[in-house]
Amino acid sequence: MQNVGVPALSPDVEPQPRRGLSRRLGCALALLVFTIVLSGAFFIEGRTSFVQSKLFAKEAAQLTYHMAPGPSDSLSFPEGGPMDVRRGYTLIPEVVTKLEHQGYRITSQARMSARHLELIDRGIYPIYHEKSRAGLLLYDASDDTLYAASFPQRYYRNFESIPRLVRESLLFIENRELLNFTRPYRNPAVEWDRLGKATLDFMTGLLDPHHAQPGGSTLATQIEKFSHSPGGRTSSAREKLRQMASASLRAYMDGPDTREARKGIVLEYVNQVPLAAVPGYGEVIGLGDALWAWYGADFDRVNTLLEDPDQLDGSELAAAGLAMKQVLSLFVAQRRPSESLTGERERLVSDTDRYLRYLATAGILSPKVRDAALAQRLVFRSPASNPIPTSFVDRKAANAIRTRLLNLLDLKQLYALDRIDLIAKTTLDGDSQAGVAHIVRDLTDPDVARALGLYGENLLAPNRRDVIYSFTLYEVMPTENVLRVQVDNWNQPLDINEGTKLDLGSTAKLRTLIYYLEIITKLHGQYAGQSPSELRRQMDGQKSVLRNWALDYLSSASDTSLAATLQAAVERSYSASTGEVFFTAGGQHTFVNMEKSEDDQRYTVEQAFRASVNLVFIRLMRDLVRYTREELPGYDPAMLKDLRHPARRAYLERFAEKEGKEYLAKFYPKYQGKHGADLLRVAGDAAGRDKKRLTVVFRSVRPSALPEELERYLVDRLGTTLKPGEARTLYDTYGPDKFDLHDRGYISHLHPLELWLVTYLEEHPGASWSEVVDQSKAARVDAYKWLYTTKSLDKQNTRIQIILEDDAFKIIHQAWRRLGYPFDSLVPSYATSIGTSGDRPAALAELMGILVRDGVRVPSGRLGQLDFARGTPFETVLDPERVAGQRVLPVEIAQTVKKALEDVVQNGTARRVRGAFELADGSPLPIGGKTGTGDHRFDTFDRHGLLIESRVVNRAGTFVFFIGDRYFGTVTAYVPGARAAEYHFTSALTVQILAKLAPELLPMMEKRGFTKPEGS
């Protein structure tokens, strides 16, 4: 019977349920096949990296950069990886800004490709071939190396130079499959099995904090971490991916085949692995430096021993075993370098021994070498007992350049500067530098000193060897004066040319002469062109000597040009007598000449400059001060004759403040840090054993104290009882309300300001010196009330003249500063003209440069082009901008002074160098200069002004010179400390040295020429 409504099945059609099952089975089978194929593809790709090699190589090929003129508009700098910071790459933008403010400009800079910048924005590190070593490199003017501080200092130059044992030990510990060259396209940034295990360990560690979690990093990603990751750490999974991606791109920079790149990874790792820091050396980078820094091992010796240690026996085998153990310990320490190398050394030794056994089991080490290594003991180098040798003498010129760079870049330490990837061109002439350095270094050798003629009158006595010598030479160039030679034999980092204040004696006469001629020039500008009658009408006995002389000369001379006037000025004469007493620097002073035969003579300024006659320049400085005082704003000579002149009070108050501050400076150390009873005890000691004096002290310091407290104080101080009521009488009689500060000081026999200071410190314990000075202004004025009310014109005038002299020297100081004087003030004394205010050789050289350029001041250069990060995507090249010189002296002054300087050499104190510099044709070069000798003494006087002690602090002699119209410099001899008293040389010693240096300097001068370059 046929079922109704159910269609008959075709005999060749399966029922519907069987067809659906078949389709599902087919899909499952297809998915299985796809999964197997995909898994196989991933497996193959994981082993071969074929696909990714193509993709990464194609991407890496777009990550380029190139150099172009001017500042770059397509450049990204690193953020803060350890290597990027160490090499200064992160600092370049900031450094460029600082350099631009100091006269540099970018002349060329790197440009990154658009794709490079895009990937950096997405987090990839800049991709380029990184240097194995970098650091500060200084070239001289001929592009020869002057100084090199590349780090690491000990390194492998190529992969092949790394001994097999070193390579295989590293790979066994860190990255065993890296050098499997059967897979040419392998990505060295990832080892999938290690990464998978590290991931699983990490997940397990989330559940079990005690579960060990070894890293899954390859050498390639470790390099990225300790070079570019912030802080050298993997701070997150994202940072790990960043390292892997950057390492992958870096591996494929040269194409899909990574075999050479993988060799480079090993090389980069052993040269760049950070291994903590050693005191006195700093950060240790690379295996080579670590072997030396931690173990004192010779890098070349270690590599020789490890080339084939199985062929060694006896002591050589033992040495090879130690070398192997040292190398392996550093690889083991890398994961926790600071802890392992400075703290947990026993654990490090244990781990190292364990790995020695592992390496032997793996067949990397032979049992023979293993046993030799296990038998050795790791002995760490002690920085204290084995310090790093440093010769400041050999590096003096380089150190001067480095110090200049330190200031230019605003860095804090030479340590950091040396590690910056920077090539700097200097102006030094390497050959002359080396030749002069050799001579100067040997000047302390008695045989050398004798051969150079340094023994004799005004020179050295035999066996005197403690002299520090310094020499500098500059050359005039179109827009600057450039340093060609800088040498000294002081084995200290300090540069005596720029870092010391020396009493250089008569070189101050050069500055004094120039200021004198500036005044004459000013007077010439003011009066030249007026008629003789007008000029004579303006002459006045109330005016300064110099003003009246100018008026007289211009009214009577046939040639009133500035040049003629200046020549006449240097022909003015002065007495050299030592018989006069001079009021200067707040007191009465006498001076002596260098030679007693000069005392009864009279000299022109020109003659006195030639022979360095002191008393002529003392009298000349007096005239300069009086002229300058006359030019002070508001100065009225009439006030010195009228006791009621309204201008006097202001000067007297200024004197009170000035001298009062000087007294406070003497008292403050005496009471500093004291309070209460201690203050009263010290003040009481000054007052002595007198009831009235002690009462004034006590009542001033403790005005609110009761009479009973005063009585206890007096009994304690005097050691005796008082009469009944005596304490009360003293209390009432000598209260602070009864007398002003000046009178209380008089009664107590304390200076009023000492009494004020004790009172103030009682009320304000711990007050600083600046606070005391600030709060004592009214007291300082009040303490000198007697001065304002005295009827003695002379007493007041003496104090007024001290202030006027101070003001005049401030003006003189401004004039000296304009010409390069290096200090913030001058001693307000006529003795400044003979060296009391000190000077620096470098500043005198700058002054000579102004004169050689006929009055134009230009920068003194020692640095040229600065090339940061050469060969990287961050390369930035800067050059100093050429700036126009500034005229600071009229040509006529410069030429007058140069003529006087030549006279010093031809006929004066520098005759020893006359004719020392001759051209090839035998004609002598013109030489000029000024000598100066300083005997710096510390003098102690009693309260009556009598000299108690005179102690020598140092002795110095210098010669500042020019040679021809293109070269100038200084020679200095210096003896610091008490032993200076044993030396009696004058600047004749420095003149003799310059004469003997001529053969070393002439070849450079002849090569460069003697005439000023065009445009200078």
Q: Can you walk through the features of this model?
A:
The structure is a single chain. This protein has 1016 residues and is of the alpha+beta class. Among the domains are: 159-374, Penicillin binding protein transpeptidase fold (Orthogonal Bundle); 481-505 and 848-855 and 890-1008, no CATH class; 509-641 and 801-837, no CATH class; 648-790, no CATH class. It has 40 helices and 21 strands. A seven-stranded mixed beta sheet has the order 1-2-17-16-7-3-4. A six-stranded mixed beta sheet has the order 15-9-8-21-20-19, with helices on both faces. A two-stranded antiparallel sheet has the order 5-6. A hairpin with a 4-residue loop joins strand 8 (468-476) and strand 9. Helix 11 (287-295) packs across helix 13 (314-333) and helix 32 crosses helix 33 (752-763). Mean pLDDT is 89; it is low at 1-15, 200-204 and 939-945.
What labels would you give this structure?
six-stranded mixed beta sheet; seven-stranded mixed beta sheet; 40 helices; Penicillin binding protein transpeptidase fold; 21 strands; 1016 residues; alpha+beta
Look at the structure and name the CATH superfamily of the domain at 159-374: Biosynthetic peptidoglycan transglycosylase-like
- The CATH architecture of the domain at 159-374 can be named as Orthogonal Bundle
Structural Rg: 41 Å
User: Which fold name fills CATH's third level, the topology of the domain at 159-374?
Assistant: Penicillin binding protein transpeptidase fold
Number of helices: 40
Low-confidence stretches: 1-15, 200-204, 939-945
Structural class: alpha+beta
Percentage of residues in strands:
5-15%
CATH class label of the domain at 159-374: Mainly Alpha
The residue fraction in helices comes out at 40-55%
Shape designation? globular
Strand order of the largest sheet: 1-2-17-16-7-3-4
**Sheet with the most strands, sense and barrel status:** 7 strands, mixed
Instruction: Tell me the span between the first and last alpha carbons.
Output: 129 Å
User: What is the strand tally?
Assistant: 21
Return the average pLDDT rounded to an integer: 89
